[in-house]
């Protein structure tokens, strides 16, 4: 087909003539260029409305011309002059401002941030035990002895021996008890608590999971050097050779790499007991006194005469 005003052949006719001169079928062009056969036929018939967008159509023309030995750039320029297809113009993005009425106010934003900060601070303080009730020390120094019920009184006088204190949860209540350095180690959960017992020598887990309330676990004595990790140290009661030791930490305290060897636990218990104020004579928390405080009674003076129960004060 020729252009009526100049007598120049159209792009489709030039491509078809080039293909015939090369001795190729249109299917051969489709196989070489990987252009769909229907588009190649539309190019030869100058049916531009059947072609895809202009950039793709120009690319088809160049591939076709290159395959049959024609000048691809010259044919691309002629195709653009012949076709009525326009280049794609992207639609501009709308940048309309947001409606301020749909945005939260500054006061609401600041209040929300403040609430989140307070919640985080409260959880951190609770986890560190800041809200645990502090022990109230005894100001009046006299209390009736609950263990013997002999009428003897307790005072802050250093010459008068203090009555045995109540045992902390999970600790041996026997006066003067010494935790053995040998014997089986047993963990008992006072509430559901996650534990991990590992063997550092082999880097393997001996036990990982949750101990249910009241459930006990005997640490294997055949594997020395085992270590404990838990997020609620105070929820575990630990015994060594049948003797309870002080808690390994606070109610929600996380501990890790704590040795479960009997000797190490006994040393830990001895150090904890030595640092506990209740282990020595002196003021004790009121909550630990089993009898009402007889604060009105005078503090007995040291004397060499025996008391009613046959003991000599300060001896």
Automatic annotation (TrEMBL):
<feature type="domain" description="Cytoskeleton protein RodZ-like C-terminal">
    <location>
        <begin position="186"/>
        <end position="258"/>
    </location>
</feature>
<keyword id="KW-0472">Membrane</keyword>
<keyword id="KW-1133">Transmembrane helix</keyword>
<dbReference type="GO" id="GO:0003677">
    <property type="term" value="F:DNA binding"/>
</dbReference>
<keyword id="KW-0812">Transmembrane</keyword>
<feature type="region of interest" description="Disordered">
    <location>
        <begin position="274"/>
        <end position="315"/>
    </location>
</feature>
<feature type="transmembrane region" description="Helical">
    <location>
        <begin position="108"/>
        <end position="127"/>
    </location>
</feature>
<dbReference type="Pfam" id="PF13413">
    <property type="entry name" value="HTH_25"/>
</dbReference>
<feature type="compositionally biased region" description="Low complexity">
    <location>
        <begin position="274"/>
        <end position="292"/>
    </location>
</feature>
<dbReference type="InterPro" id="IPR050400">
    <property type="entry name" value="Bact_Cytoskel_RodZ"/>
</dbReference>
<dbReference type="Pfam" id="PF13464">
    <property type="entry name" value="RodZ_C"/>
</dbReference>
<dbReference type="InterPro" id="IPR010982">
    <property type="entry name" value="Lambda_DNA-bd_dom_sf"/>
</dbReference>
<feature type="compositionally biased region" description="Polar residues">
    <location>
        <begin position="296"/>
        <end position="315"/>
    </location>
</feature>
<protein>
    <recommendedName>
        <fullName>Cytoskeleton protein RodZ-like C-terminal domain-containing protein</fullName>
    </recommendedName>
</protein>
<dbReference type="InterPro" id="IPR025194">
    <property type="entry name" value="RodZ-like_C"/>
</dbReference>
